[in-house]
Design goal:
Helices cover about 40% and strands about 15% of the residues. The protein has helices spanning about 5-30, 45-60, 75-85, 105-110, 125-130, 140-150, 170-180, 195-200, 250, 265-285, 290-295, and strands spanning about 5, 35-40, 65-70, 95, 160-165, 185-190, 205, 225-230, 230-235, 240-245, 255-260. The strands form three sheets. Strands 1-11-8-7-5-6 form a six-stranded parallel beta sheet. Helix 1 (about 5-30) packs parallel to helix 10, helix 2 packs across helix 10 and helix 6 crosses helix 7. The chain is globular, with a radius of gyration of 19 Å. The structure holds nicotinamide-adenine-dinucleotide. Nicotinamide-adenine-dinucleotide binds near residues 141 and 232.
Length: about 300
């Protein structure tokens, strides 16, 4: 039986630590970390994500600012808002909920956000800093995966890791973080032949694909750690359910540790968003350093 890595529980621990540090920031410096979230259009999934982010931000004592626009908003108007938020010293984090409608240029909008307030870690400056091992705001989902992996391994050094998927928001930054932790990293993707052969060699498999139950037990080395980033909606017995990229029932008996879906990586993503907002607020306003040790020890 595999160790189930409980993302719900772990995210509560991260949020408690964030709330504690927010209290200190308020008491010692009079600063309330503020997160601005921009939502364009009425995509139901995006609405749920934005609502959850706002709720969690408020719960940890942050200020949550929401900017909602119709799907036909002009690019110039969005750019203007981002410029205003960039120069507002009371705003510490800016997030544009993706995906955006087709007429908007996503790259241009992400690049318009000040790198120091880019709490999603998608700005090219943060991407470059992560790739070259410099301090950066790191994308939330892979950051959450790393906290989970540190629960399993005291030292990741020398572990072999396979990341399935090479998106800018999950696969690539995940590989960069694993490399930074001295893992031997392979990225496989939709053009890779015999993916299962790569996975079978790995101590760690991270699946970030978007295909229900793609990863089977025959892909996994006995005792390996399996991190399932996938969130796929299925309809079963007339009900809507969430499933990962890993066939959990099949893989769990052979894995050493595994994340469930739901209740795995998902809750960690929001926790790391607030962790990034806290980092941004601290960096901007104080000489205090975030107690990174406290988070790494979690
Ligand atoms: P994406 O579509 O941008 O990228 C998917 C990647 O998977 C691509 O690089 C592609 O090459 C690869 N791929 C596609 N089919 C494949 C196959 N058959 N075999 C191997 N590789 C294949 O997706 P994304 O944004 O990286 O998200 C991936 C999944 O993670 C989705 O299910 C998404 O909903 C989920 N996700 C979850 C969280 C979270 O908080 N848990 C956050 C972001 C994304």
């Amino acid at each position: 039986m595999a160790q189930i890595i409980d993302g719900k529980l772990l995210s509560i621990q991260v949020l408690e630590q964030v709330a504690h540090e927010v209290d200190i920031l308020k008491a010692e410096c009079g600063i309330v970390p503020a997160l601005a979230v921009i939502l364009v259009g009425d995509d139901p999934a995006s609405q749920v994500y934005v609502r959850n982010k706002a709720k969690r931000a408020t719960e940890v004592g942050m200020l949550s600012l929401e900017y909602r626009f119709d799907a036909d908003i002009a690019q110039v108007k969005l750019n203007r808002l981002i410029r205003e938020l960039n120069s507002d010293p009371t705003v510490h984090g800016i997030l544009v909920q993706l995906p955006l409608p087709d007429h908007l240029n996503e790259d241009e909008i992400i690049s318009a956000i000040a790198p120091s307030k880019d709490v999603d870690g998608f700005h090219p400056q943060n991407v470059g800093a992560l790739a070259s091992g410099q301090p950066a705001l790191v994308p939330c989902t892979p950051q959450g995966c790393m906290i989970m992996l540190r629960k399993v391994y005291a030292d990741l050094s020398g572990k072999s890791a396979v990341v399935i998927g090479r998106s800018n928001i999950v696969g690539k930054p995940m590989a960069a973080l694993l490399l930074q932790a001295n893992c031997t990293v392979t990225i496989v993707h939709s053009h890779t032949a015999n993916i299962e052969d790569f996975c079978r060699q790995a101590d760690i498999v991270v699946a970030a694909v978007g295909r229900v139950g793609l990863v089977k037990s025959s892909w996994i080395k006995p005792g390996a750690t399996v991190i399932d980033v996938g969130i796929n909606e299925i309809h079963e017995e007339g009900r809507r359910k969430l499933r990962g990229d890993v066939d959990f029932q099949d893989v769990e008996p052979i894995a050493g540790a595994i994340t469930p879906v739901p209740g795995g990586v998902g809750p960690m993503t929001i926790a790391c968003l607030l962790l990034n907002t806290l980092k941004a607020a601290k960096k901007k306003n104080t000489s205090l350093k975030l107690d990174d040790m406290a988070f790494e020890a979690m």
